[in-house]
């Protein structure tokens, strides 16, 4: 039998003296994990954490009492909390299993912050890994999902991941340890339980070591995925348009890449814009790819999670949809800072005339006598007309947007700056003629659009 303690030490997951939050449900696996880490000779500072899901009434309360007793027996701090997971599942629109998982991780990260812990130890083992791979395969996943759980990903550490359930139970019996049994683990209406009690035994007829083989496959895919993530990150930095608030790409640049890399880049951009990839399926990635490869220069796609992907000429954008009725308007009484929609700021100041007036599109200079206060800053309206810099007459603002290849969804975000009932600047797009700086003025008005870093 594997020497479990020697096995965990060989993984080198924990630095000497590290503070580790140990997730303990009271079941066999987590009880073994706690005992092993307590015997660890790396001078670890352990914190026992237990979340009561409030799903099994008195049995759940007994589990919490049992884990609190374990912590006391080892003379370790205990962090326990109760959450109404059934209510959370309704609120979040997810299954009980998904709601429990989300609540559990939120709790563990909070405990880690409270105790200034550098990592969280979880009791997942090789059989759990096999179940995870099958569950994701049945739901439809690529290599990223089929790589399963990792030994070490960020703060999360899984010291038992290469050990079988049988090895863990043998360790418990050898140590004379007791644990709690969760009766809901036998409920085959839950997908993971069905895979454990029904599907894996059937597959075991074809290969008695099916769990071991699935876990090994996940580990191989994880190694491949590490390389592919590095390739994707490098391409993402190379292909994204610099300085954009939301992820944005050159369509021509994307189209020149292999399909597999394009799909990974879409996932990377969606994760950056949304914060996660929940409810994003292959069909969504293929729909984005169709936008990139289609001949039509302007089109848009709404995705789950309040995300809009649109193509405007040679740009592909990932952003939150502009809300209905999102028009804005406010007055600028004089120099100062003014909040714009989309985490931006308009700053106005009186400065010495620079040697060069032409520069970044987000900066404009005005003659103070031609651009008198108060100004009005508002969103674009149909029918707006504008005299661009260097033009004697005027043209429709809509035509300026078309000629500048501004995508339709982006036009409502552009601040239109007005003085004396004249549009003097389309912020970030084009300067106007009627308030331009002439001659050798000493002081000029400077307007600049800045991104807000929160």
What do these coordinates show?
This protein is α+β, with helices and mostly antiparallel strands and 454 residues long. It contains 15 helices and 21 strands. The model has no long low-confidence stretch (mean pLDDT 89). The protein has three domains: 4-220, Rossmann fold (3-Layer(aba) Sandwich), CATH 3.40.50.620; 240-319, Uridine Diphospho-n-acetylenolpyruvylglucosamine Reductase, domain 3, CATH 3.30.465; 329-451, Phenylalanyl-trna Synthetase, Chain B, domain 3 (Phenylalanyl-tRNA Synthetase, Chain B, domain 3, 3-Layer(bba) Sandwich), CATH 3.50.40.
User: Based on the structure given, which CATH architecture of the largest domain is correct?
Assistant: 3-Layer(aba) Sandwich
CATH superfamily heading of the largest domain? HUPs
Low-confidence parts lasting 5 or more residues at pLDDT below 50? Answer: none
Strand order of the largest sheet: 3-2-1-4-6-5
Q: Looking at the chains present, what oligomeric state does this protein adopt?
A: single chain
